[in-house]
TrEMBL record:
<feature type="domain" description="DUF6590">
    <location>
        <begin position="32"/>
        <end position="144"/>
    </location>
</feature>
<dbReference type="InterPro" id="IPR046497">
    <property type="entry name" value="DUF6590"/>
</dbReference>
<dbReference type="Pfam" id="PF20233">
    <property type="entry name" value="DUF6590"/>
</dbReference>
<protein>
    <recommendedName>
        <fullName>DUF6590 domain-containing protein</fullName>
    </recommendedName>
</protein>
Length: 169
């Protein structure tokens, strides 16, 4: 499934993106942003040549201010091998936690990992990525719920507009 140019390369171009970029997939990629070089993402919807994703950010009151995250848009992420950590009360998290299955042995999920549902990112299939794991299938309905809540908050101009009556005018 992965195409590897050199055996030492950690970030790979995905050979079969339709099978890799599925709902719940967690991956890391090089991403230009003010506070770091790499970004973790969770796939929420697969499109033809790209995926719609939520970003994973560090939680805690100090990190939230740096990431401009707000508690009402965050969900705690935790490994299936442990109980979900209690977020700081200052975070104000209202979304329920999501269990994560780590598939890459060298990676782990921080107890401060938060799914930021305030913004939807478009991630192209051609990017070099590192596989991390996936959201546990039992939590896919919650992931859908969080996406629908995020989509309802987007300004009308950024949503895809659909004609309810395609035969009309």
């Amino acid at each position: 499934m992965l195409v590897n140019d050199t055996k030492a390369q950690e970030y790979l171009t995905i050979d079969k993106p339709q099978k890799f970029f599925i709902k719940g997939r967690i991956f890391k990629t090089v991403w230009k942003k003010p506070y770091g070089r790499y970004q973790w993402f969770v796939v929420i919807r697969k499109q033809l040549h790209h995926s719609l994703c939520f970003a994973i950010v560090n939680g805690g009151a100090k990190s939230m201010a740096k990431n401009r995250a707000r508690g009402e848009h965050l969900a705690v992420l935790y490994s299936t091998s442990v109980s979900p950590p209690e977020p700081d009360k200052e975070e104000g998290i209202v979304f329920g936690p999501l269990a994560v299955i780590i598939e890459e042995g060298k990676q782990n999920i921080s107890p401060f990992a938060r799914l930021d549902c305030s913004r939807v990112f478009t991630v192209e299939d051609c990017l070099r990525v590192m596989k991390i794991g996936r959201v546990h299938p039992d939590f896919h309905e919650k992931l859908d719920e969080y996406y629908k809540k995020a989509d309802s908050r987007l300004p009308t101009s950024t949503k895809r507009l659909r004609n309810p009556n395609p035969r009309a005018g």
